[in-house]
Specification:
Elements: E1 13-16, H1 21-24, E2 29-38, E3 43-46, E4 52-66, E5 69-74, E6 78-82, E7 87-90, E8 95-103
Antiparallel strand pairs: 1-2, 2-8, 3-7, 4-5, 4-6, 4-7, 4-8
Length: about 110
């Protein structure tokens, strides 16, 4: 599915998944995933989002701010984000990222 979001190029895509009740009883399950080609000044600022996020940087540079720390993210970086906590991530440059929101009984561990 194509996405229309501020700072995200039109060739970006997003896919949603609705887990079954049985899947919710398992260790992990995906919620949505995608690949974003982000333009300058793309950012996400949330106080909470009910999931965890795996983010991989294909190209470009970005950052993650969480728990009072700022972590630079560059090509080849992989980060896991607890989205139940306030978080802010984005780029001041162009950014090509794969991402996956997931949850499950063991996700916090």
């Amino acid at each position: 599915m194509k996405i229309r979001e501020n700072g995200v190029s039109p060739e970006s895509e997003i896919y949603f998944h609705t887990p079954s009740d049985q899947a919710r009883q398992l260790f992990f399950y995906p919620l949505c995933t995608g690949r974003f080609f982000c333009r300058r000044n793309y950012c996400v600022h949330r106080t909470s989002y009910d999931s965890f996020l795996a983010l991989y940087v294909v190209q470009g540079r970005g950052y993650l701010e969480q728990s009072g720390e700022r972590l630079p993210l560059k090509s080849g970086s992989f980060v896991l984000i607890d989205c139940y906590l306030p978080h802010h991530y984005g780029t001041d440059d162009e950014w090509d990222i794969y991402w996956l929101h997931f949850d499950g009984l063991l996700a916090r561990r």
